[in-house]
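Postdoc handover notes: sequence design on the structure in folder B. Input tokens:
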């Protein structure tokens, strides 16, 4: 019986009841929250019920993808403004004229941001050229060389968005080129993720760019403030990698602004990446992706001209569409895009990604591909810089191999390239990984391409990765000790929470 004459006992009882009610409310919210997969619901309820205090705190800080109502309003206003500058006047692509697989994929991509497939683009996979043997590190350095050269030739504008920019040789060269461009009157805007580029933002290069007159922006730097903490995630990130120069040239891919040696994590180096250089109408679409992040965060107005200025198509150009995803786009849209690409394959599917933690829909799509007669090859890094991702990835190997998927592990560094090629005809390249962060949490940008020549160049790069990778055999996986498999599956089971 509660002794109401004892104030300490009464206070203790009231606090216990309050915690119990709070516990049940948070568990109910995790269970009933819209746009959540059953696996995510089960994982969160399990954590909240088994570890009440830690579980409730974790859910309050990491349980929901809320960017803040004010930011959400600004993002939607900007999206509507950019949508008014649609591609209809420049679009001569009849989806019915494309192969069925490409037509369905472009239709899905159009439904994400409203952008339409555009003909007449020149897209080149950047890399080292010459008769002497080259390495993936040479390809990454060649991509930076091309980027620096284009910035040095800029006459009107340079717009850059990176998740990570390091003050190393590559990062310093790009910073010098941007500062010099600003010095000769080019309008330069640089948008960096506040966490991913925190060292660069706090260093001398940031001061150099500021003094040169470059407009600078730290994105998502307020998510750890008190007013954003409840029922949000402190770790939402702007993972986009975009460069647009003079509205004529755009860069898209997986490469951050850093040396392949990636000195902040040298143990896993080199970082191996893909970077595409684009010209043609798709550049304007990429410009809009940059502005969709810049305008809501900076409040700068009068940038409509950048978004509306579309380059003339090349007569021999390819069909492409640039789109972005993130915590404010339609739920599961990146999973839908990846899964649709997998199902579109009829003969051959090749995927490279550094972080492979697929949700159930994507995993089932990949596993079904070999059973439909599609040769399916998956290339992952042998040594992952994320211990959790590495364990979770390997928990899928037995399922994949039993279904006929060929799994390869790249041993010569962190294979950071995010690429998907379909039947040698269609390619998807960009910043998005096949993990929960990219599928649900991060702002990402990607490029969908329908062209056999461009796709062939990406397939050749993938074949280069495969040539040095080690195949994973089902017999090896089945021989893993029970404690290893238990750990892998336990980590994978909690992946919806991470």
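Designed sequence:
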């Amino acid at each position: 019986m509660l002794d109401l004459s004892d104030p300490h006992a009464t206070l203790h009882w009231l606090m216990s009841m309050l915690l119990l009610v709070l516990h049940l409310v948070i568990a109910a919210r995790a269970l009933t929250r819209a746009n959540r997969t059953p696996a995510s619901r089960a994982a969160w309820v399990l954590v909240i019920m088994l570890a009440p205090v830690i579980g409730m705190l974790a859910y309050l800080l990491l349980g929901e993808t809320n960017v803040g109502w004010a930011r959400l309003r600004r993002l939607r206003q900007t999206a509507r403004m950019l949508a008014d500058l649609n591609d209809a006047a420049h679009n001569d692509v009849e989806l019915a004229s494309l192969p069925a697989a490409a037509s369905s994929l472009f239709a899905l991509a159009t439904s994400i941001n409203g952008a339409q497939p555009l003909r007449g683009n020149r897209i080149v996979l950047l890399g080292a050229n010459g008769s002497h043997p080259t390495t993936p590190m040479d390809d990454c350095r060649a991509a930076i060389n091309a980027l620096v050269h284009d910035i040095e030739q800029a006459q009107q504008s340079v717009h850059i968005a990176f998740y990570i920019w390091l003050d190393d040789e590559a990062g310093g060269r790009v910073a010098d080129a941007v500062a010099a461009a600003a010095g000769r009157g080019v309008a330069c805007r640089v948008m960096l993720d506040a966490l991913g580029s925190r060292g660069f933002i706090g260093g001398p290069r940031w001061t150099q760019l500021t003094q040169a007159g470059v407009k600078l922006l730290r994105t998502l730097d307020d998510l750890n403030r008190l007013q954003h903490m409840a029922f949000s995630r402190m770790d939402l990130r702007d993972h986009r990698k975009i460069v647009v120069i003079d509205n004529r040239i755009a860069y898209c891919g997986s490469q951050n602004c850093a040396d392949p040696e990636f000195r902040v994590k040298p143990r896993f180096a080199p970082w191996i990446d893909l970077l595409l250089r684009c010209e043609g109408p798709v550049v304007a679409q990429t410009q809009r992706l940059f502005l969709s992040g810049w305008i809501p965060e900076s409040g700068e107005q009068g940038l409509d001209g950048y978004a509306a200025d579309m380059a003339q198509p090349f007569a021999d150009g390819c069909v492409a569409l640039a789109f972005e995803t993130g915590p404010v786009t339609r739920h599961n849209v990146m999973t839908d895009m990846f899964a649709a690409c997998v199902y579109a394959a009829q003969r051959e599917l090749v995927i490279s990604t550094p972080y492979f933690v697929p949700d159930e829909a994507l995993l089932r799509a990949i596993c079904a591909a070999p059973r439909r007669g599609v040769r399916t090859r998956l290339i992952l890094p042998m040594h992952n810089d994320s211990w959790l991702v590495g364990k979770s990835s390997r928990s899928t190997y037995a399922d994949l191999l039993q279904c006929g998927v060929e799994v390869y592990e790249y041993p010569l560094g962190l294979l950071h390239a995010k690429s998907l090629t379909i039947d040698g005809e269609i390619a998807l390249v960009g910043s998005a990984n096949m993990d929960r962060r990219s599928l649900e949490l991060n702002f990402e940008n990607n490029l969908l391409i329908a062209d056999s020549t461009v796709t062939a160049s990406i397939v050749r790069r993938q074949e280069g990765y495969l040539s040095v990778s080690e195949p994973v055999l089902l017999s090896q996986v089945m021989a893993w000790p029970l404690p290893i498999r238990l750990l892998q599956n336990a980590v994978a089971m909690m992946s919806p929470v991470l």
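Context for whoever picks this up: DSSP finds 20 helices and 17 strands in the chain. Don't rerun without checking with the PI first.
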